[in-house]
Amino acid sequence: MTRPTSPPPRDFSLLVVIGKVAVVLAIGLGAVYWMNRQPVTPGASRPAGPVRVDAPSPGMPGTPMAPAASPNAVASPEAPAAPEPTALERVMAAAAASKRADAAAAATTAPAPPAAAGLEDVISRAMPAVVRVETSSGFGSGFFIAPDTILTNVHVVGANSTVTVRLVDGKTLTARAQTTAPELDIAVLRIANPDAGQATLRIDSSVQPRQGQDVIALGTPLGLQNTVTRGIVSAVRTVGGLTLVQTDAAINPGNSGGPLLDRSGQVIGITTMAMRTSVAQGLGFAVAITHAQALLAGRRSIDQRGTPLSTLNEAMSGPRTSADADAARDRATRSYEQVITALARRADALDERWRSFTRICYEGRIAPVAGREWFALWEPRAMQGAVSPGCTSAFSDIRRIADDVRDAIVAAGETARQADVYPGTRREILQRSRLAYPGWDR
What we know:
Layout: H1 10-36, H2 87-109, H3 119-126, E1 130-135, E2 138-146, E3 149-152, H4 154-157, E4 162-166, E5 172-181, E6 186-191, E7 214-219, E8 227-239, E9 242-247, E10 259-261, E11 267-274, E12 284-288, H5 289-296, H6 308-317, H7 322-360, E13 362-363, E14 386-387, H8 392-418, H9 423-432
Antiparallel strand pairs: 1-2, 1-4, 2-3, 3-6, 4-5, 5-6, 7-8, 7-10, 8-9, 9-12, 10-11, 11-12, 13-14
Helix pairs in contact: 7-8, 7-9
């Protein structure tokens, strides 16, 4: 009989298990050590942290695997591939990229636009071209468009073949009336020996006046040379082929013949008249510069008789016959003569007062002037002496009366001019009354 085998002791079984675990650990540690001993490819970096060893691929025992992703990484499903852009999308994308590149280049290379000229700059450039036109019967304004050419009004020149031109610095020149167009109230003056450096104003028929735009009137209102007024174009009116620029800029006697400018300094008109304040406020007119350009080119832009004033009156009140116009002119002439006769009586009384004043209250010489002795009040270098102490009040009274007479003569002359009283007729009436003084409006 076989003797039954007794089971191994319990301690021995425990040792076997421990041995097996030790063998497994040893194999694992050896594999790790072997993996870490492998050469690293130049330029590659060894992954940080522990290296995971996967089972060798079949048929390639011992081949190390690439390091696994970080255990904290979350696997995401592979995104679907984007569809290919269409030909239209590619063209639009290229155009947008080109536009962005052009904008960037312009922002870095384009020069900043020049600042617009201020109103003060425009006036300072224009003023040296504006002149005072003086004749034996009065004065007005004008402006150079070339070193030898000045534009003004016919009613400023009158029947004179030559006139005196006073520049902005006070110097005077003699100008010849080369062309006159009464229907336009435009006269062209020529200077015999022009200064090549003379300031001029630009005229351009392509610059059309527009209702509401800013305008500037330059001239010699009431004898005050180098004066500027500002307004807007109230309207542009074409009557009988004549284009008139209506403005609310202040237009006073002496402004006639001066330029009406836009904000860039371009001439858009030649100031010709303003309605009396008793009739309308802020109602002035300039003849459009296009008529002057045609006249300079030897063309008459309209074919009619009369003046801008008569043309405008006809447009406002309807056509008048020649007999009506003559009758109205005769009435205006008689009215003008009555006013001047009354002013002559005041002037006679002032003559007596002036003689007493100069005998008692004035010390020094008074240069002779044309007309009455007290016309010297408006001549800057005529009174070469001094008022005696204690007589200043008497001198102020004389000056006030003289100024009142002057203002009344100027106003009467403007009313007569607007009523188409001929310049020669006005001059004769003033001469008979001993009031024909060239500088009345100063």
